[in-house]
Amino acid sequence: DLPRTFPGHPWLDTPEGHAALRRVLVGYSFRDSEVGYCQGLNYVAALLLLVMKTEEDAFWMLAVLLENVLVNDCYTNNLSGCHVEQRVFKDLLAKKCPRIAAHLEALEFDVSLVATEWFLCLFSKSLPSETTLRVWDVLFYEGAKVLFHAALAIFMMKEDELLLTHQVGDIINILQRTTHHLFDPDELLTVAFDKIGFMTTNTISKQRKKQEPEVMKELDERLRRLNSLRTDDK
Q1: Which of 69, 93, 113 is the endpoint of a domain?
Q2: How far apart are the first and last CA of the chain?
Q3: Residue ranges of the Rab-GAP TBC domain (predicted)?
């Protein structure tokens, strides 16, 4: 994944940059063997390397994010925490943006098609770096609920366009075009907090607990089917 992380960047996309990123990621995999390495962490660690003074500082900031700010199990092998976050986000979209949610459901569009990358990469692969860093400022201060605020805001900002779509591809194109050109962080954060409204960490935690049993059940069933296929192959 190293060469695919911000390709073309004048430092990251060099042997020196690749080596620094590898050291941070490998170092964290030794610190937390349950997480190890998960796709998405390369973008998070890379942006940390660009803004922190040393590899050590980037490493410890990554540790703080994964261990103190974000939800447990988001980056484990089965991505159970990430699956839970996507279920919670879908519910919040229905509450905060009901017209959009109803339209997407009618088109059989699964919001996780776009939101999974947003949450795993903490928007670092989707938003311009200056906007991502402003989101991260609030993320470190207020916690993982900020990811929901930002994701909901992106949908709300393009509500009129999204309601006119008839194809899944059009939805993805609108959202990708929007995120890639969100150079004004104030625009995003104003919608995220002033228009989306207040959401408590406790409320989101309750939503997570509600979704966890069903997610774990589905993951267990998926694992059983996979093991059954492997047994049949033998």
Answers
A1: 69
A2: 32
A3: 1-143
Look at residue 234 and tell me whether its pLDDT is greater than 70. no
Cβ atoms 215, 80 nearer than 8 A: yes
**CB within 8 Å of 92: residues ≥ 6 apart:** 148, 152, 199, 204, 207
The closest alpha carbon to 25, from 17, 131, 13, belongs to: 17
Residue that has been written with the tokens 């190293």 in this structure: 2
198 domain residue, yes or no: yes
The pair of structure tokens assigned to 44 is 């998070």
The answer on 108 and 49 residing in a single domain is no
8 A C-beta contact, residue 58 and residue 52: yes
CB atoms closer than 10 angstroms to residue 47: 24
d(CA 182, CA 194): 17
Q: What tens digit of pLDDT does each residue of 169-180 get?
A: 999 999 999 999
d(CA 72, CA 214): 17
pLDDT band at 204 (very low <50, low <70, confident <90, very high): very high
Structural domain for 131, as ranges? 80-218
| One-letter amino acid for residue 10 of the chain | P
C-alpha pair distances (Å), 147 with each of 33, 40, 170: 25, 15, 23
